[in-house]
TrEMBL record:
PANTHER family: DTDP-6-DEOXY-D-GLUCOSE-3,5 EPIMERASE, THYMIDINE DIPHOSPHO-4-KETO-RHAMNOSE 3,5-EPIMERASE. It catalyses: dTDP-4-dehydro-6-deoxy-alpha-D-glucose = dTDP-4-dehydro-beta-L-rhamnose. The active site is at H61, Y134. This is dTDP-4-dehydrorhamnose 3,5-epimerase. GO terms for biological process: dTDP-rhamnose biosynthetic process; polysaccharide biosynthetic process. The lineage of its organism: Bacteria, Pseudomonadati, Acidobacteriota, Terriglobia, Terriglobales. Keywords: Isomerase. Belongs to the dTDP-4-dehydrorhamnose 3,5-epimerase family. One of its GO terms (cellular component) is cytosol. GO terms for molecular function: dTDP-4-dehydrorhamnose 3,5-epimerase activity.
Amino acid sequence: MNVVDTSLRDVKIVEPRRFGDERGWFAEFYNQQAFAAAGLPTHFVQDNQSFSRKGVLRGLHYQLGRPQGKLVRVLHGHIWDVVVDLRPESPDFGRWEGFDLMGADLTDTPRMLWVPEGFAHGFLVMSETTEVFYKTTDLYHPQGERCIVWNDARLGIQWPLEGMTPAVSAKDAVGSSFEAADLPGAPVGVSGK
């Protein structure tokens, strides 16, 4: 397994070792010992999968009270995945980075994205359809669910829309601005200012 640092502290690209021949390939996507040796989390409590059509934009989601770390993998298709550091004590606070994640074919190296607790997460579907699978370090906590609107001016995320009008859920469309957002781990009353 190869673990690659990104420009955001603690966000990692994880590339499982692939074994293949002309028939196809096999890869071990999660191994507790290998993850522990690489300094990655080993305790996951929930698996999620989504299916989306081209132009669907999900996010930017995070949870208060019971934050979730996410290990994200594309089973089929292509997404542009975005993470935003919401940790007030982080030197990367308020910074974002985008990653192309795709389902692996016969020659591709499979890739996953590790998104630690304290980050907002979202993605834009670039292919006709896509299936995204992710493991989380905590259960879904509806009372703590929060969303920062995808096109927040302060964050200035450069979504690769290329003429697309994103399809956003009603809930995501009315997400908070970064400036007004309740932040994970912040003292009560501290927002993204």
